[in-house]
Amino acid sequence: MDNQYNEILNKAINYRRDFHRYPETGWLEFRTTSIIAKELSRLGYEILLGKEIIDEKSVMGRPLETVIKENIIRAINERADEEILKKMDCLTGVVGILDTKNPGPTVAFRFDIDALELEEPEDENHKPYKYGFSSRHKGVMHACGHDGHAAMGLVFAEYLSKAKEELKGKVVLIFQPAEEGVRGAKAMVKKGVVDDVDYFFAMHIGFGSTKDIGLVAKSKGFFATKKLDVTFKGKSSHAAAYPHLGKNALLAASNAVINLHAIPPHSEGQTRINVGVLHAGTSRNIIPDKAIMQMEIRGENDNLVEYMKNCAERIIAGSSKMYETEYEIVEAGSAICADGSDELIPLLIEVGRELNLPDIRVDSNMNGSDDATYFIKRVQEKGGKAIYSQILCPITAPHHNNYFDFDEKALLYGVLINLKITKKLLK
């Protein structure tokens, strides 16, 4: 590996490990956004923040104001730039624009930046703990590689700025908040962030674990999905003296959970459902008056998601009626189906070959969801081309597992792939 490659890799590792130490969940990425925005500004990028890039009416699953304020204070204590925080209007994410001032196409790259609600293990077999960069935020960790995506984006931005004189057109770097729970992209698309984009690229680290670094040119098979927050409201009462006066929200929710997981499969394609969270009750001798449930539904196409949603709503309503409770359903996130542009596959394969990657694949099924599909579909609707790729690399555990980690060498190739793509399209 030559000196420049070592330099790129070391810079990316330093950023990645810093982001890993200070993980932030969706719509709370205040420190992360501040650091990215400050660095992009230093590199000469035009910076867009807050309401400039987020349509507030389209924001889904936003935390309570009290939680937002607490996380802003924490970000300040962890070296976030207060002037940048003020410009964010309590909305995370940042867009950096490099305009060469020479006529040419506009190329956009998406990097997601949020973490997950998982407890990172204190185990010497887990590299982040062993080498001292594990999460300092209890119950939150990067377990999907977004720390790596943010790091790749920043180092890519630096080396791209050095090549500005060689290029024509514009480069738009989208550091997206709240990908987990598919909450952030829709609000950015509604604000018009990619309306003028000719080429759009998104990339994810780690899928298809291999012995070395590889590349999937096009990810396909994205599930459409909806994330639903359900609240059952009943009536509390003494569990022994007056059980007949209570309306048991926990029983209503539990009945719903069992039946939700029994929704029949559909002949038109694959579907998924998962109730991931259920909180209810205050004491063993009180009839629970409130139950909160967080769930998701997915389908191979948008019609299947509607089928699942209609079934879920019917089951929730029936369970609530059975136990004489009230209920409320709030859509806390969503993603649509989209198919990347096949015309960009040869470009990705050419780049992979130039980098001598040992494992290059034309396409691969995602079997999951990512709200980058909103960007992909919008760019295509406007006449542009868009694609979602994967960097294959060894991983220590599946994504969304608290022992997840990836081979950091993937960061180098993420930067190099994006640089080569840009130079080929904007030369």
TrEMBL record:
Listed transmembrane segments: none
Requisite cofactors: Mn(2+)
EC number: 3.5.1.-
Keywords: Hydrolase, Manganese, Metal-binding
Residues binding Mn(2+), per UniProt: C144, H146, E180, H204, H400
Cofactor note: The Mn(2+) ion enhances activity.
Endpoints of the signal sequence: none
Residue ranges of domain Peptidase M20 dimerisation in the record: 227-311
Entry-linked InterPro entries: Amidohydrolase, Bact_exopeptidase_dim_dom, Peptidase_M20, Peptidase_M20/M20A_hydrolases, Peptidase_M20_dimer
Coiled-coil annotated spans: none
One of the record's GO cellular component terms: cytoplasm
GO molecular function, one term: para-aminobenzoyl-glutamate hydrolase activity
GO biological process: one example: folic acid catabolic process
Lineage top rank: taxon: Bacteria
Pfam family, one: M20_dimer
Protein name, per record: Indole-3-acetyl-aspartic acid hydrolase
Lineage of origin: Bacteria, Bacillati, Bacillota, Clostridia, Thermosediminibacterales
